[in-house]
Amino acid sequence: MQILITGGTGFIGQALLRYWSAAGHELTVLSRRPQSNRAQCHYVQSLNDVPPGRAPQAVVNLAGASLAGKRWSARYKTELVDSRVQGTRVLTAWMRSLPVPPAVLLSASAIGYYGARGSEALDESSAAGSGFSSDLCSAWESEALAAGEAGTRVCLVRLGVVLDAGGGAFTEMARPFKLGIASWPGSGHQCLSWVHRNDVVAAMDFLLHHEALAGAVNVTAPQPVTQRRFCTAMRKQFTSLPGMPVPAVVMRLMLGEMADELLLTGQCVHPQRLEEAGFHWQHPDIDSALLAILAPHAGDKLP
Ligand SMILES: NC(=O)c1ccc[n+]([C@@H]2O[C@H](COP(=O)([O-])OP(=O)(O)OC[C@H]3O[C@@H](n4cnc5c(N)ncnc54)[C@H](OP(=O)(O)O)[C@@H]3O)[C@@H](O)[C@H]2O)c1
Question: What CATH class is the domain 2-294?
């Protein structure tokens, strides 16, 4: 299959490229930076440069400035929004202009769509929340849905916190534990809706082929944990002192608005639609996921 991926150079994109190259798909990656082409992987810096012979049957939209990359200043918020909303608008307009529009668009979104909701149980039928990340996800998803006007099946992939070695949130989360300090943000009772990166790759592949699935799909593990439970699971992997909280006031001083939205309130998200469709998680529980991340030769494998 011909698949076009935006943001394919990132943490999730790289894992997808490895998996889909091995599966024999022809991949085109839209990147802002010049890249060397590899077997089965062709890079372009503009959609106008996609050769006619590489017109995609499927598009995966991952591009966007990193949400946790910098403090959310007014200027950085504009970059976070523009890189997703404008980028997706340009992408879907291009898709609609193709002689044969792609059959499917898997467009990344985030569980931030639901806003900071504490311990409330959330699934795909839950309404959008409030706050910057919720507004951002709603606007991003609206742009993605425009691809449906040309008959493309659109999946809005609401990702939880994606865990794996070598990037993403886990690198930051593991830092204190590597120093022997176990900690959690705020009360520790807030819910962390996480997912192992291999399960994200498997879910993307599942959505690619499952023609009955369209609209919002939560891509999280079926067993979210509290921040304190995550700390306990990490302590099984690292030798560390007994856990202690990083007070909310310190988190807010360090991270500003991002602290409340991403870390201190939490979201308890359930992957209802993937479960109903019969998706199988390689890492449904946090202990298995952390073991695979920290002891990668302990039998873990890509889906
Ligand atoms: N990882 C997670 O835990 C998580 C959770 C929820 C949602 N998501 C969403 O899923 C998507 C992929 O996540 P990821 O972790 O793979 O992200 P990532 O590693 O930060 O990669 C995203 C890619 O987007 C491109 N990009 C970065 N800044 C950009 C900008 N200002 N304008 C346009 N493109 C830009 C970059 O590609 P080039 O430099 O090649 O252009 C980058 O490789 C993101 O949109 C993210 O918000 C991720």
Answer: alpha beta
